[in-house]
Amino acid sequence: MLLTVENLRVSYGAIRALQGISFQVDEGEIVCIIGANGAGKTTTLQAISRLIPVEPGSKLIYEGKNLLDYPPHKVVTELGIVHVPEGRRLFGNLTVMENLILATYGRKDKEGIKRDLEMVFDLFPRLAERKNQKAGTLSGGEQQMLAVGRALMSGRKMMLLDEPSMGLAPLLMQELFKALREINREGTTILLVEQNAHMALQFAQRGYVLETGRIVLEGPTKDLMENPKVKEAYLGG
Amino acid sequence: MTLNEFAQHFLNALQWGSFYALIALGYSMVYGILMLFNFAHGDIFMAGAYIGLFVALALLSISTTGIIALPNWLVFILTLVLAMIFTSFLGMLVERVAYRPLRDAPRASAAITGLMVGIFLETSNLLFLGASRKTFPPLIEKTVYEIGGVTFTNIKIMIVGLSLILMLALHLFVRKTKWGMAMRAMCYDYVVVPLMGVPMNAIASLTFAIGSALAAVAGILFSIAYPVLEPYMGLLIGWKAFVAAILGGRGSIPGAVLGGFLLGFLEIFVAAFFTSTLRDLIAYSIILLILTFKPHGFFGEPYSARLRL
Ligand SMILES: Nc1ncnc2c1ncn2[C@@H]1O[C@H](COP(=O)(O)OP(=O)(O)OP(=O)(O)O)[C@@H](O)[C@H]1O
Ligand SMILES: [Mg+2]
Fold first, then answer.
1. In Å, how far are A234, B148, B222, B290 from B7, measured between CA atoms?
2. Which of A200, B65, B116, B309 is the most exposed place for a label (fewest CB within 10 A)?
3. Contact B40, B117 (CB under 8 A)
4. Cβ B184–A77 below 8 Å, yes or no?
């Protein structure tokens, strides 16, 4: 297993956001976690990238290493786990190019950086056209592309994606997921969390259903799509 | 007002503007990145001046014992460089000990801590050096030049020139290097910066180091122009530089420079046209008026996703 999460618990003061969830992601897989507002999806990803503290007893193992031993920037630079946060969170005061370059902060391999930049511009040609534009002036779709491209620049072992479909028109969404599939084919493992269960279940191979901080269902996405409970609660009947 | 008088005021304004701007940059950079005002910054200026004093005295005594004969200009440059380095360590220490533990605490706690650190620096100075004033050695011999009836000294030209060069260097650093990029990113959205693989604590330390080094330069240049040092020398000038940082727009580097020079010009020219006892009253009334119309200063952002002090 690439990533093993066991009994992950996170609280915000008295609010218990994650009540001991367990799941796994294997190398090369696309795995999704679906759930409604406030289910704990963002919290799960933030725990993996070490942005928020977890409660004692939580286990996060990545390639046999204890994730809890790593500060957030080393999760990126040493383990190669990149996180495309909810709402994109681009640096709007930096240009497109600067956003991409900043993400290579911990890298020394000039050649690799050059190759990755080419790949990002291949995947998202519009970013190349706008590379000197301030990220804050991009359209929503372009911003999401930049958010994904930026993550690719930091490394590409595993990518955590927090609701990339949010606010995208159907056509742009197709375009984005096509690029994500391409990124996966080139060897990046993907853990995707989504409210848009339809999209996520079509895209991923395996899935988990998160409800108020607990995993209530799991399995291959084919089975989940057929599951009556999932159909009713997440796929609109 | 004769042409020469005007030129004198103008040069004085540039000189004071340089002092204010150099100090204001430290306030603004730290605010931009950590959203706190380092209220110990005026005392870092003071510490920088004293560190410069001791470095200069040490170098001069090495020179007079004849081990290595150092010309005064070299002593001055070495003093500047070494004091920048030592003072930046002091700044990083202050960040590490006083501010880092309070990063998520209410901003008022950090402000009080800053005031405490300032008092600590002043008091330790008194304790170790006593209440007597110290005199900065005259490292640069004053020469007066005259062009077309306008006189000026090499010292003023040097102070203004060196300050401008450092401001330009800072500008290039922030625009062109990955550290500068990380600083700008932190100003915009501090939370997700670690997701780029950027060690935030290192950037915070670096910011304090740069701010403190610039304050040390201001301290030494100030001591060259006004060679009497005392433990409270950083208080008034520190608060005024803080006003300059607010005037320019908190967090903004060009703002801090503009605010510093604006303050210098206001003070000097108000004193030139009115009586100098009313200088501060008039100058700061004008600033208050500006802030009434531009509450976020010249380059401040009117709103941000981040909380504000
Ligand atoms: N910083 C916070 N402080 C307090 N409570 C929080 C915080 N962040 C999240 N929560 C709470 O934790 C729970 C899980 O939130 P989380 O953001 O993980 O949900 P989510 O599944 O990502 O929802 P959405 O689909 O709306 O993004 C919610 O009840 C939320 O209100
Ligand atoms: Mg969320």
1. 76, 11, 20, 26
2. B65
3. yes
4. no
Q: Which residues make beta-bridge pairs with A158?
A: A81, A189
Residue B149: CB atoms within 10 A of its CB come to: 9
Task: Tell me which residue in B185, B195, B199 faces A94 most closely, judged by beta carbons.
Answer: B185
Which amino acid appears at position A194 of this protein?
A: E
Query: Ligand 1 in contact with A85 (CB < 6 A)?
Result: no
For residue B302, pLDDT beyond 70: no
Helix, strand, coil shares, percent, chain B, to 5: 75, 5, 20
Cα(A107)–Cα(A101) distance, integer angstroms = 10
- As given in the structure block, the two tokens for residue A7 are 């009994």
Report the C-alpha gap between B152 and B11 in whole angstroms: 8
Instruction: Answer whether A38 contacts ligand 1 (Cβ < 6 A).
Output: yes
**What chain A residue is nearest to B198 in terms of C-alpha separation?**
A73
User: Is residue B309 over pLDDT 50?
Assistant: no
Angle between helices B200-225 and B233-248 (to 10 degrees): 120
Q: Is the pTM of this model over 0.90?
A: yes
Q: Kindly indicate the confidence band of residue B149, based on its pLDDT and cuts at 50, 70 and 90.
A: confident
Cβ(A197) to ligand 1 under 6 A?
no
A210 Cα–ligand 2 center, Å: 12
Q: Which residue has the tokens 């607010």?
A: B246
Q: DSSP H helical segments within A17-109, as ranges?
A: 41-48, 72-77, 96-102
Q: What secondary structure letter does DSSP report for A211?
A: E
Q: Which residue has the tokens 């200063």?
A: B297
Cα–Cα distance between A91 and A74 in angstroms, integer?
20
The dihedral through the CA atoms of A30, A34, A37, A41 has a sign that is negative
SS3 assignment, position A62: strand
